[in-house]
Known about the structure:
2 domains, RmlC-like_jellyroll, Jelly Rolls, ChrR-like_cupin_dom, nine-stranded antiparallel beta sheet, RmlC_Cupin_sf, eight-stranded antiparallel beta sheet, globular
Amino acid sequence: MELNTDFAKRVLVHSDEEPWRASPMPGVDRRMLDRIGGEVARATTIVRYAPESNFSAHTHTGGEEFIVLDGVFQDEHGDFPAGTYVRNPPTTRHAPGSDKGCTIFVKLWQFDMDDRNQFRKDMAEELGPDENGLRIATLHRDDRETVTYMEAQAGASIEVSDTGGIEVLMIDGSMTEAGDMLRKGSWLRLPEGQSLSAVAGPEGAKVWMKTGHLPYAKPPQV
């Protein structure tokens, strides 16, 4: 499957307008945002776990990172409530599920294959002081990418010019970018060389962002 695979183009998807598609496991459904490959894929996806659903144990050969958007995600390493950011690098293994149901935003096969830095973070606990209506947390940084979480007050300007592409998930609130209104669940990908210039909406904005990573986009190596 190929979906939004031209990384030289701006892409905006309002995920709440996308259909839920069944995964191979009963009770686990997906809204696909970008994808290169079949069930083994370089993929960016919103995944919904019904109560008492789970995946069988598996190894993430290409690594995974995810944000818990609502509910509580669980595996043998613990419970991960809404607002948790998790990186499971290549070679890590788990059996994920959710007793009461949850929704996550997950990226697969987008790691440096030598990365072994596994961690979880409460994104809000990482936020720095307010500067011009913005509080920012740097969740992860390496030679390939920078991952941040941001909370913006109403009307605050959000300006990002990092090289290597920009990817945004609206976790809550809204913002306007290039004449488009992004709302909760909207996903935006800007190509390498294009800057982000946005203004937070009247309720403010909570934003997850990754920059610098698009030059490394490629199909999974299996």
